[in-house]
């Protein structure tokens, strides 16, 4: 529930709303924006608009989702860059490592049972890693939604993150403005004021 807002004029002449809960908004372009120009109440990009910025948004969310998620988590004040990057990167490395280990074990094994047991164990491990990754990424998505007053729920976040991970990550990165179009940056962006 929103608190009562005081209307003031911003330096650029736009209506400026200062809420008691610390959220500042600008009224422009038919929507609400915070003082840094991040849209409130709706996603600034659609669920499949990751191709609007191929570099870095689409590339990073597809090839290095751990970096993109860490940048979004920092941008919304959820955690530090190092902790988010370590969490998502370690899951990413474990998933790739499990798949490589399975392949090497199958190639080097002379045991016929290896062909039956190893894939099942590896698939089970990969499913657990994937589940942890999706739940962690969904928590970041829920944080983005609540920080910018976007309607939705945690179950929808979980489903979208599970079924189209790269699109969900790209949508969050676009909305939180955690990247500079045309520039692949691996560092931590500044945390948005009011998101902490």
Characteristic key phrases:
6 helices; 54% helix; 196 residues; alpha+beta; PLAC_motif_containing; 2 domains; disordered N terminus
Overview of the structural elements:
This protein has 196 residues and is an alpha+beta fold. It folds into two domains: 1-37, no CATH class; 44-176, no CATH class. It is built from six helices and five strands; from the N terminus they run βββββαααααα. Strands 1-2-3-4-5 form a five-stranded antiparallel sheet, with no helix packed on it. α1 packs across α2. It is elongated, with a radius of gyration of 20 Å.
Largest sheet: 5 strands, antiparallel
Kindly report the oligomeric state of this protein: single chain
Using the alpha-carbon principal axes, give the shape: elongated
If helices are DSSP runs of H or I spanning 4 or more residues, what is the number of helices?
6
Helix-strand category: alpha+beta
The total beta strand count reads: 5
What's this, in brief?
Keywords: Membrane, Transmembrane, Transmembrane helix. By secondary structure, the protein is an alpha+beta fold.
What is the element layout, followed by pairings?
Layout: E1 5-9, E2 15-19, E3 24-28, E4 31-34, E5 39-40, H1 54-63, H2 65-75, H3 81-108, H4 114-147, H5 154-163, H6 165-176
Antiparallel strand pairs: 1-2, 2-3, 3-4, 4-5
Helix pairs in contact: 1-2, 1-6, 2-3, 2-6, 3-4, 4-5, 4-6, 5-6
